[in-house]
Specification:
The chain contains twelve helices and eight strands. The two termini are 16 Å apart. Bound molecules: zinc ion.
Amino acid sequence: MAADAHAHPGDLLALFPGAEDERRRLAVPCAASAWNEGEFTLHRELAAAAKRDAAAPYRLCFAVHPQLPRGKTGSRNAGEAGFLRPLELLAEFAAAGSLAAVGETGFDLYDEAFRKTEKIQEELFAAHLEIARACKLPVVLHVRRAMHKIFLHAGSLKELPAVVFHSWPGSPDEGFSLLRRGIPAFFSFGAALMRNHKRMIQSCAVFPLERILFETDAPWQPPRGRAFSSWADLPGILRAAAEIRKEAGVPGGEVTELEEATDKNFYSVFGVP
Ligand SMILES: [Zn+2]
């Protein structure tokens, strides 16, 4: 099965207790993103159990989610300054070699409430990039209405081993522009491919196969008509992507080919087992 480049297993398990059984049955390697200590501890336990049982592996990611500074009114309800402790933890985990990537970090300027925290998001992002650079870690980026911010940081992003755009939010031109600037960008696609998201489909049709990843962002990006996303969505995402690429006449027009290539990409970004 194709690897999942971005998911939140702790959040998913809270909604769907059978999630880990499903993941193991489908043999989905997963990059797990956490932003607090409890979640990270759970991910660490899941990873250790998977290793012990020779199940599909986890790769652990940690960052202060860019939505956190929005605080009490935010969807994640972190409270004012609730992100200071997570930032300390990130530095600890990264220095201890516990992480496969710093993420998800980035910018969320979706609406006025998020834009009010732009300055804090800016400071947090700079701190994350510094930790990633010092520890030679890839980053997983969450970017909403903020691609211009990413281009401002092109110089620092170029220095990292890999830059994964979770749920690729840009246009094909923006993607190629990042690559031309020497940023080791990977473009991750999820359920939006099945929802006729136009720019995502156009991007999936043209990017080089060695730059593509897939994700569920479970449980946060449900396919139409579902309450949450889970690992069982991956085959549908892959089929949609293969169809798009077949029609475009580019490599990766068959599911097996796409699966093999993106698995390889997953391990080149997050480390070989
Ligand atoms: Zn996410």
